[in-house]
Amino acid sequence: MQNWMRALALHYERIRARNPQDSLLIVFDIDGTILDTRYLLRYLLQSYDYHHNTRHCAGLTLEELAIHENRLHRLLQRRGIAADQIERIEAFYRRHRWSTKAVLEAHRPYRGVLEIIRWFQMQPRTEVGLNSGRPEGLRLATLRSLNALGEEYRVRFRSDLLHLNSDPAGRDIAKAKIEGIHAFRTAGYRIIAVVDNEPANLAAVTEANPAAEILPLHANTLFESKRMLSPQGTVRGHSYDITALITERRLPQHVQFVWNGIDNERELQRFLASEVHWAECTVRRHPVDGALHTRQTALPSTLFATHDHALPLARLLDTLRNRQRRLRLDLSTQPELLDATLELLRGYDGLEQADFWFAGTMDGLQASGFKRLANDFVGAIIECRADFLAPLTVAAPNRARGLIAMLQDWGVNRFGVAWSAPHKSRLLDLMDRCATDAHIIGVPNLEAFLRTSLLQPRSISSAFDFQLWQPGSHRYRSSPIRPMSQAAPF
User: Fold this and answer.
1) Which pTM does this prediction carry?
2) What is the CATH topology of the domain spanning 250-486?
């Protein structure tokens, strides 16, 4: 069976190739397609218990709630609730399911869907539209809640690309869906795909647009209408797998890749077998002979002497010079090695100043260290770790902006942020406004790598010990991907 996200990617490529200048639109339903409605159902049932001092729905699991809302009656019967109580619970649910409070409090996206939307929003002349059966009165609450969820992914939904049901009660959803498609087409968009959890809605849209190039995609999550109603050509799926959508040559093209943790000969050879340009190492002093070595973790001198697999920094520099690669030197752990490191680097002909990238912390290198690097290595990347700024982007954004400006005055031109740091998207937005670059450190696996690339930092570091694509295909291989400068344009 064809992967539905892969089918969407191929369909998008075909339509774009035939219509290079058109404004393309992928249309998503909201409830049951972007949002997991089980959380809304649980929220409202627990709210009923709270307001009525009952425990009918205590201990409800998400597995129990894997039902369409119109089958709520059966769920309540299975829990042994009396018929008169079931009627009251259902009435409470119908009364509050489209309330602003419920919409704002109980939204949870399906895993991966916002990354899919982000990728399409990044493509030239491509937008994502929302076509929902929700009543028009929920426009502001819908945009507010979805944009709050999308902030982490740098996803933004616009009011002009949101179509809602003109019926205040949210009835005749299929008719509303057809009207939404017509409205988007009237606005000048070529609609290429519709994603919906209800086969009946897909059938209605396809029947009303028989000559269109619309690929129907059935989100096989929770649905009421029969699957046999799905129009011909429907592709089904339930997992929004970003690795199936994004091929190697479709990655954001400006992102630099950095191979981290090169501290032994084996890792060096893996890096050299790749097409990644930047190597990364942590500089340490050998506890026995005093020479500079690369090692991520320090070892006691006794172990270092007997199990010495550390890579001499001089050996790494010789290799990179001969292979025309570049080097990121992490001085965060031992900033006192700055003098010795610079003395060693100055003796290497064939390595330009722009071939180096220095990383440190604000309290380690301090103003004097960063300014010295900026003056002595014009054109080099000077990076300061900036994880500490993440909470400030929420609590005191002006203070964060002031600290970035101060560090820029020191010569810092890139800011390092751990992959695990909170509020990454806010921090990257702030750096964009401050006209500086961000580097995401320590991305652990392929999915995280793709999600991070969609945030569009300037660079990403990883050990690249996960499998990636073969060029031009969706098969996997163990060697790393091309540097972004060589990626094919979309």
Assistant:
1) 0.79
2) TIM Barrel (3.20.20)
